[in-house]
Model the fold of this input.
Amino acid sequence: MTFPQTIAVNPSLISFPWFTTRRGRWAAALALPLVVGPIWCLAGQFSGSLLGTLSGLVLLAALFTSAITDVRSHKIYNWVTYSALLWAVLINVVASLLSPGEDTLIRAYHHAAIMGPEFLGGVGLGQCLAGAALCFFVTVLGYRLSGIGAGDVKLAAAIGALLGVHQGVFAVAYSYIVAAAAIIAWSVWSQGPIPLLKAGLRTIGVLFLPMWPFPPTADDHNLLIKPIPLGPYFAIGTLLVVLEVVPV
Done:
Protein backbone atom coordinates (compact mmCIF):
# COMPACT_ATOMS: atom_id res chain seq x y z
CA MET A 1 0.00 0.00 0.00
CA THR A 2 1.31 3.40 -0.90
CA PHE A 3 0.53 6.61 0.93
CA PRO A 4 0.16 9.97 -0.76
CA GLN A 5 3.14 12.25 -0.43
CA THR A 6 2.69 14.89 2.24
CA ILE A 7 3.50 18.48 1.46
CA ALA A 8 4.72 20.85 4.16
CA VAL A 9 2.65 24.00 4.25
CA ASN A 10 3.41 27.12 6.20
CA PRO A 11 0.58 27.50 8.78
CA SER A 12 0.60 31.26 8.34
CA LEU A 13 -0.35 30.82 4.69
CA ILE A 14 -3.34 28.74 5.70
CA SER A 15 -4.53 31.32 8.19
CA PHE A 16 -3.95 34.36 6.00
CA PRO A 17 -3.71 33.29 2.35
CA TRP A 18 -4.98 36.68 1.16
CA PHE A 19 -1.96 38.45 2.68
CA THR A 20 0.39 36.65 0.28
CA THR A 21 -1.09 38.54 -2.66
CA ARG A 22 -0.38 42.13 -3.64
CA ARG A 23 -4.06 43.05 -3.45
CA GLY A 24 -4.33 41.46 -0.02
CA ARG A 25 -1.43 43.49 1.35
CA TRP A 26 -2.94 46.72 0.02
CA ALA A 27 -6.30 45.83 1.57
CA ALA A 28 -4.69 45.02 4.93
CA ALA A 29 -2.64 48.24 4.98
CA LEU A 30 -5.64 50.41 4.12
CA ALA A 31 -8.02 48.64 6.52
CA LEU A 32 -5.72 48.46 9.55
CA PRO A 33 -6.56 51.95 10.95
CA LEU A 34 -10.28 51.26 10.48
CA VAL A 35 -10.17 47.91 12.27
CA VAL A 36 -7.58 48.53 14.99
CA GLY A 37 -7.87 52.32 15.22
CA PRO A 38 -10.87 52.59 17.60
CA ILE A 39 -9.34 50.14 20.10
CA TRP A 40 -5.91 51.76 19.77
CA CYS A 41 -7.24 55.28 20.37
CA LEU A 42 -9.37 54.15 23.31
CA ALA A 43 -6.39 52.45 24.94
CA GLY A 44 -4.08 55.41 24.28
CA GLN A 45 -6.42 58.28 25.17
CA PHE A 46 -4.68 58.84 28.52
CA SER A 47 -1.12 58.37 27.26
CA GLY A 48 -0.67 62.00 26.26
CA SER A 49 1.54 60.92 23.37
CA LEU A 50 1.11 61.11 19.61
CA LEU A 51 1.68 57.36 19.49
CA GLY A 52 -1.65 56.81 21.25
CA THR A 53 -3.59 58.48 18.43
CA LEU A 54 -4.76 57.29 15.04
CA SER A 55 -1.79 59.07 13.44
CA GLY A 56 0.48 57.26 15.88
CA LEU A 57 -0.97 53.90 14.89
CA VAL A 58 -0.41 54.63 11.20
CA LEU A 59 3.12 55.85 11.91
CA LEU A 60 4.09 52.82 14.00
CA ALA A 61 2.59 50.39 11.49
CA ALA A 62 4.49 52.02 8.61
CA LEU A 63 7.78 52.18 10.53
CA PHE A 64 7.82 48.63 11.84
CA THR A 65 6.51 47.06 8.63
CA SER A 66 9.14 48.95 6.61
CA ALA A 67 11.88 47.92 9.03
CA ILE A 68 10.93 44.24 8.69
CA THR A 69 10.56 44.20 4.90
CA ASP A 70 13.74 46.23 4.38
CA VAL A 71 15.80 43.85 6.50
CA ARG A 72 14.28 40.73 4.96
CA SER A 73 14.09 41.71 1.28
CA HIS A 74 15.79 45.13 1.04
CA LYS A 75 12.49 46.69 -0.04
CA ILE A 76 10.05 49.20 1.39
CA TYR A 77 6.82 48.51 -0.44
CA ASN A 78 4.38 50.98 -1.93
CA TRP A 79 1.47 49.38 -0.09
CA VAL A 80 3.14 50.48 3.15
CA THR A 81 4.16 54.03 2.23
CA TYR A 82 1.27 55.03 -0.03
CA SER A 83 -1.36 53.76 2.40
CA ALA A 84 0.34 55.69 5.24
CA LEU A 85 0.39 58.85 3.09
CA LEU A 86 -3.28 58.42 2.20
CA TRP A 87 -4.26 57.97 5.83
CA ALA A 88 -2.14 60.98 6.84
CA VAL A 89 -4.00 63.17 4.36
CA LEU A 90 -7.43 61.82 5.39
CA ILE A 91 -6.71 62.29 9.09
CA ASN A 92 -5.51 65.85 8.59
CA VAL A 93 -8.37 66.81 6.27
CA VAL A 94 -10.80 65.77 8.99
CA ALA A 95 -8.68 67.43 11.71
CA SER A 96 -8.55 70.70 9.78
CA LEU A 97 -12.30 70.67 9.12
CA LEU A 98 -13.11 70.00 12.77
CA SER A 99 -10.57 72.43 14.22
CA PRO A 100 -11.67 75.93 15.25
CA GLY A 101 -8.10 77.22 14.89
CA GLU A 102 -6.19 78.22 11.77
CA ASP A 103 -4.08 75.71 9.88
CA THR A 104 -0.95 77.79 9.39
CA LEU A 105 2.73 77.24 8.64
CA ILE A 106 3.91 80.51 10.18
CA ARG A 107 5.32 78.66 13.18
CA ALA A 108 6.58 75.69 11.19
CA TYR A 109 9.92 75.79 12.99
CA HIS A 110 8.11 74.73 16.20
CA HIS A 111 6.31 71.49 16.99
CA ALA A 112 3.06 71.26 15.05
CA ALA A 113 0.09 71.65 17.39
CA ILE A 114 -2.49 68.88 17.45
CA MET A 115 -5.59 70.08 15.59
CA GLY A 116 -9.14 68.84 15.80
CA PRO A 117 -10.09 65.82 17.94
CA GLU A 118 -7.07 64.69 19.94
CA PHE A 119 -7.59 61.00 19.19
CA LEU A 120 -6.84 61.70 15.51
CA GLY A 121 -3.41 63.17 16.22
CA GLY A 122 -3.76 65.50 13.23
CA VAL A 123 -1.35 68.39 12.68
CA GLY A 124 -3.45 70.16 10.06
CA LEU A 125 -3.55 69.76 6.30
CA GLY A 126 -0.97 72.49 5.69
CA GLN A 127 1.57 70.92 8.03
CA CYS A 128 0.80 67.48 6.59
CA LEU A 129 1.43 68.46 2.97
CA ALA A 130 4.40 70.71 3.73
CA GLY A 131 6.00 68.06 5.95
CA ALA A 132 5.57 65.41 3.27
CA ALA A 133 7.03 67.66 0.56
CA LEU A 134 10.01 68.83 2.61
CA CYS A 135 10.96 65.38 3.88
CA PHE A 136 10.55 64.02 0.35
CA PHE A 137 12.94 66.58 -1.17
CA VAL A 138 15.47 66.23 1.66
CA THR A 139 15.59 62.47 1.15
CA VAL A 140 15.68 62.77 -2.64
CA LEU A 141 19.09 64.42 -2.26
CA GLY A 142 20.33 61.30 -0.49
CA TYR A 143 18.67 59.17 -3.16
CA ARG A 144 20.57 61.02 -5.90
CA LEU A 145 23.91 61.11 -4.09
CA SER A 146 24.14 57.73 -2.42
CA GLY A 147 21.70 55.57 -4.33
CA ILE A 148 19.36 54.76 -1.44
CA GLY A 149 16.14 53.05 -2.39
CA ALA A 150 13.12 54.98 -3.60
CA GLY A 151 11.10 53.30 -0.86
CA ASP A 152 13.15 55.24 1.71
CA VAL A 153 12.11 58.50 0.04
CA LYS A 154 8.42 57.56 0.15
CA LEU A 155 8.69 56.47 3.78
CA ALA A 156 10.29 59.82 4.68
CA ALA A 157 7.39 61.61 2.96
CA ALA A 158 4.89 59.58 4.99
CA ILE A 159 6.75 60.45 8.20
CA GLY A 160 6.67 64.14 7.31
CA ALA A 161 2.96 63.96 6.48
CA LEU A 162 2.14 62.43 9.86
CA LEU A 163 4.45 64.56 12.02
CA GLY A 164 4.47 67.91 10.24
CA VAL A 165 7.40 70.03 9.10
CA HIS A 166 9.43 70.40 12.29
CA GLN A 167 9.31 66.91 13.73
CA GLY A 168 9.33 65.31 10.29
CA VAL A 169 12.61 66.93 9.26
CA PHE A 170 14.22 66.12 12.60
CA ALA A 171 13.00 62.52 12.36
CA VAL A 172 14.66 62.13 8.95
CA ALA A 173 17.84 63.86 10.16
CA TYR A 174 18.20 61.65 13.23
CA SER A 175 17.47 58.57 11.12
CA TYR A 176 20.47 59.38 8.93
CA ILE A 177 22.62 60.16 11.98
CA VAL A 178 21.80 56.80 13.55
CA ALA A 179 22.45 55.02 10.25
CA ALA A 180 25.80 56.80 9.78
CA ALA A 181 26.86 55.95 13.33
CA ALA A 182 25.97 52.29 12.76
CA ILE A 183 27.91 52.18 9.47
CA ILE A 184 30.98 53.77 11.03
CA ALA A 185 30.87 51.46 14.04
CA TRP A 186 30.54 48.39 11.83
CA SER A 187 33.32 49.52 9.49
CA VAL A 188 35.68 50.18 12.40
CA TRP A 189 34.80 46.81 13.92
CA SER A 190 35.20 44.83 10.69
CA GLN A 191 37.98 46.74 8.88
CA GLY A 192 39.73 48.68 11.62
CA PRO A 193 39.98 52.46 12.09
CA ILE A 194 43.05 53.04 9.87
CA PRO A 195 41.50 51.94 6.52
CA LEU A 196 38.37 53.95 7.33
CA LEU A 197 40.45 57.05 8.14
CA LYS A 198 42.47 56.71 4.94
CA ALA A 199 39.34 56.27 2.82
CA GLY A 200 37.77 59.32 4.41
CA LEU A 201 40.83 61.52 3.92
CA ARG A 202 41.23 60.50 0.27
CA THR A 203 37.57 61.16 -0.48
CA ILE A 204 37.51 64.53 1.28
CA GLY A 205 40.80 65.54 -0.33
CA VAL A 206 39.49 64.93 -3.85
CA LEU A 207 36.32 66.90 -3.10
CA PHE A 208 37.96 70.02 -1.68
CA LEU A 209 41.53 70.06 -3.03
CA PRO A 210 41.87 70.07 -6.84
CA MET A 211 45.56 69.09 -6.72
CA TRP A 212 45.07 66.29 -4.19
CA PRO A 213 47.51 63.51 -5.21
CA PHE A 214 45.77 60.57 -3.49
CA PRO A 215 42.43 59.76 -5.14
CA PRO A 216 40.18 57.18 -3.43
CA THR A 217 40.48 53.61 -4.63
CA ALA A 218 37.71 51.16 -5.42
CA ASP A 219 38.19 49.62 -1.97
CA ASP A 220 37.72 53.08 -0.44
CA HIS A 221 34.41 53.50 -2.26
CA ASN A 222 33.25 50.06 -1.15
CA LEU A 223 34.18 50.87 2.43
CA LEU A 224 32.45 54.26 2.57
CA ILE A 225 29.37 53.56 0.44
CA LYS A 226 27.57 50.50 1.70
CA PRO A 227 24.00 49.70 0.66
CA ILE A 228 22.21 49.14 3.95
CA PRO A 229 18.52 48.77 4.79
CA LEU A 230 17.47 52.17 6.15
CA GLY A 231 14.04 51.01 7.31
CA PRO A 232 15.17 50.10 10.84
CA TYR A 233 17.06 53.38 11.19
CA PHE A 234 14.01 55.38 10.12
CA ALA A 235 12.09 53.60 12.87
CA ILE A 236 14.77 54.37 15.48
CA GLY A 237 15.29 57.99 14.44
CA THR A 238 11.57 58.76 14.26
CA LEU A 239 10.81 57.20 17.65
CA LEU A 240 13.69 59.14 19.22
CA VAL A 241 12.01 62.36 18.04
CA VAL A 242 8.41 61.42 18.82
CA LEU A 243 9.28 60.17 22.31
CA GLU A 244 11.39 63.32 22.85
CA VAL A 245 14.51 61.33 23.70
CA VAL A 246 16.65 63.70 21.62
CA PRO A 247 16.57 67.51 21.37
CA VAL A 248 14.56 68.94 18.47
Notes: Residues 73 and 197 are 31 Å apart (CA to CA). The chain has ten helices and no strands. The longest helix spans residues 165-191.
